[in-house]
Design a protein that fits this description.
Protein name: Eclosion hormone
Structural class: mainly alpha
Largest sheet: none
Strand content: under 5%
Keywords: Disulfide bond, Hormone, Neuropeptide, Secreted, Signal
Main location: secreted
GO molecular function: hormone activity
Subcellular location: Secreted
Length: 91
């Protein structure tokens, strides 16, 4: 019973932390330039939040790693996110 209470408490804390709004800030690498790979992965996460199941976030993040952030998705530019969109089929 106690472990259930602890698990529930941890769940509530995690949910509270996840609901805190985060202000976006530019990411910098250790040389003072933009961390383009981090920007790319963050954009993938943002697009996933915006488009939900219609957006393949894991495929997007894998592309960031494969191309080392050279192709950064812009959630408002259909051309840059087209490879990561899918059609949801209703059955």
């Amino acid at each position: 019973m106690i472990s259930l209470k602890i698990s529930f408490s941890i769940l509530l804390v995690v949910m509270a932390i996840n609901s805190i709004p985060v202000k976006a800030a530019p990411q910098f690498d250790m040389f003072g330039g933009y961390d383009i790979l981090g920007v790319c992965i963050n954009n993938c996460a943002q697009c996933k939040k915006m488009y939900g199941a219609y957006f393949e976030g894991q495929l997007c993040a894998d592309s960031c790693l494969r191309f080392r952030g050279k192709i950064v998705p812009d959630c408002e530019d259909i051309g840059s996110i087209a490879p990561f969109l899918n059609k949801m089929e209703l059955h």
